[in-house]
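For the sake of transparency, this paper describes our internal protein records without simplification. The remainder of this section carries one protein's record, kept here as part of the documentation:
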Amino acid sequence: MSKRYDKILKEILKDVVDTLITKVIGLKIVKSTAIETKLQITNEREADFILRVEFEDGSTSILHIEFQATNYSKMVYRELRYWVYLTEVHGIAPMQYVFYIGNEPLTMKASLSSETTAHRYNLIDMRDVDCGKFLHSDKPEEVIISILCNYQKKGVKIFIREILSRLRELVPEETLRGKYIRQVEVLSQLRDLQGEVSEEAEAMALVYDLERDVRFKQGIEKGIEKGIERGIERGLLEGQRKGLLEGVEGMLELKYGCAAVALMDMLRVVDSIDKLVEFKNLIKKTDSLDELKGFFGKTRTSIAAD
């Protein structure tokens, strides 16, 4: 999977792996158990998903699933390495499936053959999968996946509107719905549809207003209260700083989800209360992670100038 999307996509897709197995691959399993995905293959690699699955007839197998956002010309060799390792360790030849979720025409090869070796894995282009398999689900996690599927008969605006309308029906609670809409936006980047998703969400009044969320306000207040309490023991400034960090972390999680987690590591090294307040205010004003990242460049420049 593309490193740019790796962590985010794994977090989003982990809840729909079983659905992909049944609705797209077509396997009728009654149980699946996750297996460690880090593999010691010369250089350590980490697979996306490895599952021990049980079928209706009582038989079991190992299922290896990868998500690929770009055309990797050597994918078949990577899958062969995984196959050899998994077969050796578990004593079962794994069933291998790669879901291509990129936007460029699929060019990867799914098999190789030489005088001494032959290997094949199952390659699925998500753009060939009917979006109806997921769009009408009662699970929001599955509805989100439909953004990666074939929608050509609908037209892009109608399609996106159907996704957002379905999420509104399934998730009446505004904070949680905002999280799912953010996930749709993340996945829509793989289809060059982020602008359309953002536009339709705003037109349908689905854009999450952080300022109006009561629990968010309470969270900020509690964070500051905790900071002040700690400040009595450790010093008022340090207490304020910790309170601000807790409040900002809550804002980032609610507004941007897992895509903004890395920013907290950068923010924790900022000592200035004024800079933290400035960053908190910036979160309210902007809808762009790039603008938030730009803050740290400016902060470093300001410190160097001082």
Observations:
- The mean pLDDT is 80.
- The two ends are 42 Å apart (CA to CA).
